């Protein structure tokens, strides 16, 4: 997606070989025009997939999910992060280990909003090691709904989450794919270096 790549080149910052800072348009300040284009792009790709629900994880997944939900005319369920989980009726939970933060957290959704007849598109901002995506898949699987695919805005291919998911047969759509990062440089897959 060209508009997104341009944004990453002009406003993103590769902090080191692992982390791309996109606080200027996605994680802190949010660009609504870009979010709308992202929503249109995901909707275009999943138009014929029969999506009935979008599932995302708070907080940075919400904006692109909402725009996609608007385009597809479906509701968005936001999985919540909880440090400790007090057992609640109808609450489904999954463990997610973050390599970045080196901590385990619990994510949860209410079973009230996803049914076994639903066709779900999972959306998140980053796909790194894929732990968040796996956690979201685990939650959706507990509802017996069908997972049609996972849409991410930025995939960091060197962290292999996307490769692992695709190897399992999961459809993964990434709007920007990054082959590697160097301090101050973003190298997109199959492309020249951008400084
Ligand atoms: P994983 O799920 O793929 O294994 O990733 P990881 O645990 O490493 O990610 C933890 C958090 O860091 C997630 O956000 C994820 O979106 C984000 N993240 C991963 N790599 C990058 C990166 O290169 N740049 C930026 N900006 N974020 C990255 P989160 O903690 O859930 O936060 P948020 O959704 O509230 O923003
Ligand atoms: Na994030
Ligand atoms: Na995230």
Automatic annotation (TrEMBL):
Catalytic activity of the protein: XMP + diphosphate = xanthine + 5-phospho-alpha-D-ribose 1-diphosphate
Pathway assignment: Purine metabolism; XMP biosynthesis via salvage pathway; XMP from xanthine: step 1/1
Localization (cell): Cytoplasm
Enzyme Commission numbers on file: 2.4.2.22
Amino-acid positions noted as binding 5-phospho-alpha-D-ribose 1-diphosphate in the UniProt annotation, renumbered to this chain: 128-132
Any GO MF annotation of the entry: xanthine phosphoribosyltransferase activity
Main location: cytoplasm
Binding, xanthine: 20, 27, 156
Domain of life the protein comes from: Bacteria
Keyword Cytoplasm found: yes
Entry GO CC: cytoplasm
One GO process term, biological-process aspect: XMP salvage
Broad class of enzyme this protein falls into: transferase
Keywords assigned by UniProt, alphabetized: Cytoplasm, Glycosyltransferase, Purine salvage, Transferase
Family indicated by similarity: Belongs to the purine/pyrimidine phosphoribosyltransferase family. Xpt subfamily.
Oligomeric form and interacting partners: Homodimer.
Record function comment: Converts the preformed base xanthine, a product of nucleic acid breakdown, to xanthosine 5'-monophosphate (XMP), so it can be reused for RNA or DNA synthesis.
Stated name of the protein: Xanthine phosphoribosyltransferase
Species for this entry: Pontibacillus yanchengensis Y32
Gene: xpt
């Amino acid at each position: 997606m060209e508009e997104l790549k341009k944004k990453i080149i002009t406003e993103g910052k590769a902090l080191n070989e692992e982390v791309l800072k996109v606080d200027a348009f996605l994680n802190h300040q949010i660009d609504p025009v870009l979010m709308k284009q992202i929503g249109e792009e995901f909707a275009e790709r999943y138009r014929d997939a029969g999506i009935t629900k979008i599932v995302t994880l708070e907080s940075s997944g919400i904006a692109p999910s909402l725009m996609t939900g608007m385009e597809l005319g479906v509701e968005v369920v936001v999985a919540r992060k909880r440090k400790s989980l007090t057992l609640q009726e109808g609450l489904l939970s999954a463990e997610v280990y973050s390599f970045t933060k080196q901590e385990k957290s619990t994510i949860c959704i209410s079973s009230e909003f996803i049914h076994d007849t639903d066709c779900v598109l999972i959306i998140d901002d980053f796909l790194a090691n894929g732990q968040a995506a796996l956690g979201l898949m685990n939650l959706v699987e507990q509802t017996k709904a069908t997972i049609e695919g996972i849409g991410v805005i930025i995939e960091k291919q060197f962290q292999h989450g996307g490769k692992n998911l695709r190897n399992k047969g999961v459809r993964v759509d990434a709007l920007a794919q990054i082959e590697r990062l160097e301090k101050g440089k973003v190298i997109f897959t199959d492309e020249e270096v951008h400084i």
